[in-house]
Amino acid sequence: MKSTTVSRWLVATFCALTAITAAQAQTTKLPNVTVLATGGTIAGTGATSTTTVGYTAATVGVQQLINAVPELAKIANVKGEQVFQIASESMTNEHWLTLGKRVNALLAQNDVDGIVITHGTDTMEETAYFLDLVVKSKKPVVLVGAMRPSTALSADGPINLYNAVSIAGSQEAVGKGVLLALNDQIHAARDVTKTNTSTPDSFKTPELGLLGYVQGGKPFFYRASTRKHTTDSEFDIANLTALPQVDIVYGYANMNTVALDAFVAAGAKGIIHAGVGDGSIAARVKPGLIAARKKGTIIVRSSRVGQGILARNGEANDDELDFVASDTLSPQKARILLMLALTKTNNTRDIQRMFYTY
Ligand code: DGL
């Protein structure tokens, strides 16, 4: 082989190796984000491109969701796992324990920088708050979903997934607690709620406010939650195989105790009373709550209203009745905190402290 040919071969080889090294360097500089898929509308399909209601949720697999957003490869090294494939109205305590344990196992790995959980929007706020209380890492965990199925015109899933991965791979999101991100907004798990049955701007934190925005694939934070979460939480699910049964009794005019009595008879360890107004209890319902408390059931007064502080000793003498006040937690989130509280204590003073802490 002539020397000029050898020289050309060496130069070509050197250039190729340099390019590979640069590409590898670029890839290794990208954060490692794992996407855990659970189902929902983001994985949903409809009969036509204009079907935005009446579609089938939980039909598209995690790798297809990732492949539909090739831009992800520019912002993170993304791996996908299909943890469940369900519509989120069917989420159970057992699903939460499985998901929470998987999240903690992954975040304990040095090669995982953040996690995105794709999820149905119906119970996303609940899963987010449960994880906010049990995740044992400061690394970002971001819940994401979609209000339109993947087959719809202007489906919001792809951009929501891209934004969620950008947050999960960011330094800015470290230590912020579990986050929920749709519609270019970033919300805290504790305070966010679904406010509309079908529009893409459904998730809001009405009075306490969102934490920030995602723009151009970058998160911008303007607030942080003041309540304890993740590594500051006293709750640990590592050795739990079940959660205590806690049910919600919804308040309304002309209410009776049929539901309350049935829950207590079925062995509920706790009852969330989602009262009218500031957690008011109907005169004909109060005796049933008092009797349940006397049998050892923990009673938490919450409100169906949605915003504001549920004042202890306001609409009921909680000190005398030995009830717990839910502070600003919605009934569905008060249920989650009470379930976890009951894995630690039955002492109502201790439980009330937890409602003022998380
Ligand atoms: N069945 C609902 C769910 O899985 C669909 C709503 C959605 O994901 O946006 O939560």
Automatic annotation (TrEMBL):
A UniProt-annotated Pfam family: Asparaginase
EC number: 3.5.1.1
The keyword Signal is annotated on this UniProt entry: yes
CDD domains (UniProt xref): L-asparaginase_II
PANTHER family (UniProt xref): 60 KDA LYSOPHOSPHOLIPASE, L-ASPARAGINASE
Protein name: Type II asparaginase
Residues in the signal sequence: 1-25
Gene3D superfamilies: 3.40.50.40, L-asparaginase, N-terminal domain
Keyword vocabulary terms for this entry: Hydrolase, Signal
Family according to the record: Belongs to the asparaginase 1 family.
Gene Ontology MF: a single term: asparaginase activity
Domain L-asparaginase N-terminal per the UniProt entry, residue ranges: 32-224
Domain Asparaginase/glutaminase C-terminal span(s) in chain numbering: 245-355
Stretches of the chain forming a coiled coil according to its record: none
Keyword Hydrolase: yes
SUPFAM superfamilies in the cross-refs: Glutaminase/Asparaginase (SSF53774)
Organism: [Empedobacter] haloabium
Record: active site: T41, T121
